[in-house]
């Protein structure tokens, strides 16, 4: 059974966020990595200090331009995923708003770091989607289609030209040992994927 690992971080798991063009799962994942916990009035929240936000470094990490990183960060503010707060010493920081369990999954910080360091946009969202489907199926194998995954991340389902985006993500998730999968051999085409196992922690080397 998948267990919640210590030091896990929340990641959106519903299309309200994942299919929104304003959302960038790698950027949000990096902010979760950077965040620290502070308890105020018995309420625990995660924060990132404004002075620690360097858009050039973040851009290099997630493979976008500095301007795009800054724009995507503003989008997260507009979406209500993060909120700017002011401290008594006039310093500013950002609060990563706590999401209900119905709209977010918990991913171990080490797993999240590996994904943000090595993969591309949408990889975290695809991984979370597959993990939640696996849990919903009683941690048994299930069939998922390329179109279902494309719909979840908000890319076109009317063309096959973007199938490679999904298959590349699946290949790397497989190599990391987070998702065990194969093409469904009961079908003639290769748009149906059988998910055999999903892990929430990286297997030992």
Keywords:
39% helix; single chain; 3-stranded antiparallel sheet; Arc Repressor Mutant, subunit A; 23% strand; 4-stranded antiparallel sheet; 9 strands; alpha+beta; globular; 205 residues
Specify the CATH architecture of the largest domain: Orthogonal Bundle
Helix residue percentage: 25-40%
- Contiguous low-pLDDT stretches (5 residues minimum) are none
Coarse structural class:
alpha+beta
CATH topology of the largest domain: Arc Repressor Mutant, subunit A
Number of extended strands: 9
Radius of gyration: 18 Å
The H/E string reads: EHHEEHHEEEHHEHHEE
Average of the residue pLDDT scores: 92
Beta-strand fraction estimate: 15-25%
User: What's the number of structural domains?
Assistant: 2
Question: What would the principal axes of the Cα set say about the shape?
Answer: globular
CATH class of the largest domain: Mainly Alpha
Q: What multimeric state do the chains show?
A: single chain
Question: Explain this structure to me?
Answer:
This protein has 205 residues and is α+β, with helices and mostly antiparallel strands. The protein has two domains: 8-96, Winged helix-like DNA-binding domain superfamily/Winged helix DNA-binding domain (Arc Repressor Mutant, subunit A); 120-198, Orthogonal Bundle (Arc Repressor Mutant, subunit A). 39% of the residues lie in helices and 23% in strands. The protein is built from eight helices and nine strands. It has helices at residues 15-18, 25-34, 55-62, 66-78, 109-118, 123-136, 146-153, 163-175; strands spanning 8-12, 36-40, 43-49, 82-86, 92-96, 104-108, 142-145, 179-183, 192-198. The strands form three sheets. The chain has a four-stranded antiparallel β-sheet with strand order 2-3-5-4. Strand 4 and strand 5 (92-96) form a beta hairpin. Helix 2 packs across helix 5. The longest helix has 14 residues, at 123-136. The radius of gyration is 18 Å and the shape is globular. The two termini are 21 Å apart. The relative contact order is 0.17.
């Amino acid at each position: 059974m998948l267990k919640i690992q210590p030091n896990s971080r929340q990641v959106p798991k519903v299309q309200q966020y994942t299919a929104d063009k304003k959302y960038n799962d790698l950027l949000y994942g990096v902010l979760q990595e950077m965040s620290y916990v502070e308890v105020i009035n018995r309420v625990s929240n995660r924060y990132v200090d404004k002075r620690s936000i360097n858009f050039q470094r973040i851009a290099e990490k997630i493979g976008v331009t500095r301007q795009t990183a800054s724009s995507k960060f503003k989008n997260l503010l507009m979406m209500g995923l993060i909120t700017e707060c002011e401290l008594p010493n006039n310093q500013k920081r950002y609060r990563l708003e706590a999401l209900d369990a119905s709209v977010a999954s918990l991913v171990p910080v080490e797993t999240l770091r590996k994904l943000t360091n090595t993969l591309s946009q949408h990889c975290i969202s695809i991984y979370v989607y597959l993990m939640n489907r696996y849990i919903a199926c009683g941690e048994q194998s299930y069939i998922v289609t390329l179109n279902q995954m494309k719909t979840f991340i908000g890319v076109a389902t009317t063309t096959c030209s973007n199938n490679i985006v999904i298959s590349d993500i699946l290949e790397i998730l497989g190599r990391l040992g987070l998702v065990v999968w194969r093409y469904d051999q009961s079908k003639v085409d290769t748009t149906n994927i059988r998910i055999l196992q999903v892990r929430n922690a990286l297997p030992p080397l």
